[in-house]
Amino acid sequence: MADSKKPAGERKPRAKPRPKYPWLRLLELEQERPDLHPAGEQARAAKPRGRPRNAFPRKKIHITLTEDELQALDGLVGRLSPRIAGLHRGNLIAMLVFYLQESLEGSDPEQVKSFTDIVKILDQEKGER
Question: Which of 15, 26, 79, 116 is the most exposed place for a label (fewest CB within 10 A)?
């Protein structure tokens, strides 16, 4: 009888699991662009003048926030930016919007009539993880 196990060098590579949040990969790719976050004097010298083009074109919008909301947003950005290169308010807002959209996708639109309903849905989803 032939051995059914293949030698270690002949194993078929595992397929990468499909990401749960495809939009998350796009945001990560944008953060990983080396031309957006140069490091050191050499990078500064080699970097072309002007603002680098965004990998994903963005549109400027105007939002109105209370002092508390702005403080909370800036607090989150300040806390996360040392670990996430190039994190800005817009990046964080984009991630939160995509996450909320994904979280609400399976829910009944009639079920959502207030912010409390949104939080209940998110809490239920959190319990499922």
Answer: 15
